[in-house]
Amino acid sequence: DVTVATASGDESAHIWKVTIGSQTVLSSDDDDEDKAADSGPCESETTQQQSSEGIRIKSPLMRLTGHTGVVIGCDWLAGGSQLCTASWDRTANIYDVERGEVLNILSGHEMELNHCSAHPSQKLVVTSSKDSTFRLWDFRETIQSVAVFQGHQESVSSVAFSSGDRIVSGSDDRTVKVWDLRNMRSAISTIRLSSAANRLSVSRSHGVVAIPLDNRHVRIYDLAGNRLPRVPNRRCHSRMVSCAAWADDHPQVNLLTCGFDRGVAGWKVTLAKE
């Protein structure tokens, strides 16, 4: 069994128990509508598989409440007993998922939050906001601390930790920036793009970032800001690509992307070990 957390427009987050098997797929109640949607043909560099009805899971283990706006993202803290949520109510919450209680309310952003991400091994959380900043919250000491970073000109769409004490932030200002946790006065590299960056993903196995763009493309760069040429770069989605997620341990499909065309694409990206 796998425990899954989801964020929702109903101002809550949910915890689910999922049994993973050869035929188990999560699907929504909108299957009939989705089948009629034209997600557009993917070109040859994507891995396509036949869609499945899957198994609908309708009853969560727990519903986490406390926000007064859309919950736009969530992430597990190291250890798996706590969850961070980001909301359009301008706050992030830290929950104890065993008791369903709010442990901390992270306030200070001046506009809606877009994303939150937790460090894989330390008690650190980053939140990004439409106020053009992202914040680093440190829970390693008894008294929590927060640092505010103003490296972007427009809404910060997402922020993520990578290996080697680095943070990657993406923005509507058409840049992605890489920061060193040990000295965050300025970015150590800046990736300039032709379109706004959406919810990016960093591969911790390979030290590269997948960037979904408003212009329907997905771009992959290393953390020094170099674009990688030997990756799928043909357009697959017919509308903006909203999110990317690496699946480093999967043997066939190691990058997933989804878009406003209501389609999910699986990519096989061949990369050298970091």
Automatic annotation (TrEMBL):
**Where's it found, cell-wise?**
Cytoplasm; Nucleus
Pinpoint the residue ranges of every WD repeat in the record: 64-105, 106-140, 149-189
Q: Which Pfam families match?
A: WD40
Which residues lie in Polar residues bias regions?
Answer: 44-53
What this protein is called in its record is WD repeat-containing protein 37
Q: Which GO terms describe its cellular component?
A: cytoplasm; nucleus
Q: What is the lineage of its organism?
A: Eukaryota, Metazoa, Ecdysozoa, Nematoda, Chromadorea
Q: Sorted alphabetically, which InterPro entries does this protein's record hold?
A: WD40/YVTN_repeat-like_dom_sf, WD40_PAC1, WD40_repeat_CS, WD40_repeat_dom_sf, WD40_rpt
User: What SMART domains does this protein's entry cite?
Assistant: WD40
Keywords of the record, alphabetical order, are: Cytoplasm, Nucleus, Repeat, WD repeat
Q: Which organism is it from?
A: Cylicostephanus goldi (Nematode worm)
